[in-house]
């Protein structure tokens, strides 16, 4: 698999960088709170290897371009939470929309998105607010606060929910599932006994079985709706 490249995406507010790899229908890979780090680049390469143009935009560029943290130290966790608290979610979704438009200009045809952690919420909002052809969110936090937007979801959305998510309590999970379970564009999968970031390779709560299951569902979902 070829190494990806850094590309520039221009918006009305300025320009930001993104990591891109692969050819075919596009998938925008939406970052966690740690920036476009090695985990996100590896995920981008993973989708590229499946036959997609995968693009991971630097959504923290308005705070500080090029942030790359890990989940290995308490200091980095605190930095990541600080960046998340500064992050403008609405502007972030706008940037994802610009990335989708950029992807379509590359001639790849359909374009979707997949997000993790903070990116899981942004994936949900991408399905609500943009023309993403198919969208997947992994363990999104605070989706329950945006359920009023679900009525605008017009294209397929899949959400992977961690039953023991430390950042999304059982009441919030139930609220999300009750609100979305009958939506004709939404597919929900809940994974028992796993915590937030169960699909992050090398992470503290990585669960190989649940990750394999979720990733297989995601792969089939994108192949069905973007292929």
TrEMBL record:
Q: Which InterPro entries match?
A: AB_hydrolase_fold, Dienelactn_hydro, Dienelactone_hydrolase-like
Which intervals hold domain Dienelactone hydrolase?
23-225
Give a GO molecular function annotation for the protein. Answer: hydrolase activity
Q: Name one Pfam family in it.
A: DLH
Q: For this UniProt record, give its keywords in alphabetical order, as a comma-separated list.
A: Hydrolase
Protein name listed in UniProt:
Dienelactone hydrolase family protein
